[in-house]
Amino acid sequence: MRSIKQIKNLKGKIALVRVDFNVPTKNGEVLDDFRIKKAIPSIKFLIKKGAKVILITHLGKDGSKSLKPIIKHFFKISKCSKSQVSFFDNVRKFAGEMKNDSSFAKKLSILGDIYVNEAFSVSHRTHASVIGLPRFLPGYIGFQFEEEIKNLSNTFKKIKHPFLFILGGAKFSTKMPMIQKYLKLADYIFIGGALSSDFLKAKGYVVGKSLVDNTNYGIKKFLKNKKLILPVDVVVKSGSKLINKKVSEVKKDEIILDIGNKTVKNLAQLIKKSKLILLNGPLGKYESSGAKSTREVLKIVAKAKAKSIIGGGDIVSIISKMKMEEKFSFVSTGGGAALDFLINGTLPGIKALK
């Protein structure tokens, strides 16, 4: 793939830049601008080289949301001129986008001279603005996209050992291929979040009313693997109380919300001796008082000497709230895209540019 650094002449050209500014908003204000900030260096580079930029993004699943709060926030933080940068309408308003309709991609392509993908986080989608546009225009990747590939590739190429993979989150079906892949690559895999309830249940522990996926994924075969590490204690919601207790003490009417204090201490020891740490997904039900351990673990990882790579939309939101984006070696803008790339080593948006 070609980087925007390789473009010879941009003077007077129009660059169509696919960004992912699908960020949370409330009452017309942007709540988390991490993805917006990460795209600005590429946009400013293109302007400096003499190009005018048209930004293409979606907001919301169905395209019904107005881009006004996004546009206002972008110009406020980027200090770009409106004569140099403009926005295409919410691209998911158009039926041809999600269908990857060729005629829609062609109509989009008429607006510019070159195509730049600076939306790694949406590059697992087979949409017109991601894989259709590069068929009609010379295609390049932006600086953040380049960094995503370089850093995430470090977890399956040229690995530094000991390599610790801390895996949280809830969607077992999407995380299972990661567990299978990284049990071969990593030295240790710690399972937290709702995923750990499935493993604890398979081990014969009571998990009460905790979220579990009842699909048979053959978890028991993984339990024999010594690389796999599970919580030894958890924080449960018992009535209205939060109680830290051993995994063997969870009752049928309780809900596991977080990993426990002893588990965090055990994890801290592994973090200290690791040279590479990949952290994907929160370690507790962070929206229901289960973010404490995730925050503690993030602070420990931030202080570690290891190369630290963080991925997954939910955990990035926690990092943004803690204002810790610069404390790690690399924080991915991708949620599902980072997951797919870690599993497959490529994405539809990457293949489209090759």
Q: What does this 3D model show about the protein?
A:
The protein has 354 residues and is α/β, with parallel strands linked by helices. It has two domains: 4-147, 3-Layer(aba) Sandwich (Rossmann fold), CATH 3.40.50.1260; 154-342, Phosphoglycerate kinase, N-terminal domain (Rossmann fold, 3-Layer(aba) Sandwich). Helix content is 36%, strand content 19%. The chain has 14 helices and 16 strands. It has helices spanning 34-48, 68-78, 95-98, 102-109, 128-132, 143-153, 172-185, 195-202, 220-223, 261-273, 292-303, 313-322, 336-344, 348-351; strands at 14-19, 25-26, 29-30, 52-56, 85-87, 114-118, 139-141, 163-167, 188-191, 228-229, 233-238, 241-246, 255-259, 276-280, 307-311, 330-331. The protein has a six-stranded parallel sheet with strand order 10-9-8-14-15-16, with helices on both faces. Strands 5-4-1-6-7 form a five-stranded parallel sheet. A three-stranded antiparallel sheet has the order 12-11-13. It is elongated. The protein starts with 13 loop residues before the first strand and ends with a helix. The model has no long low-confidence stretch (mean pLDDT 95).
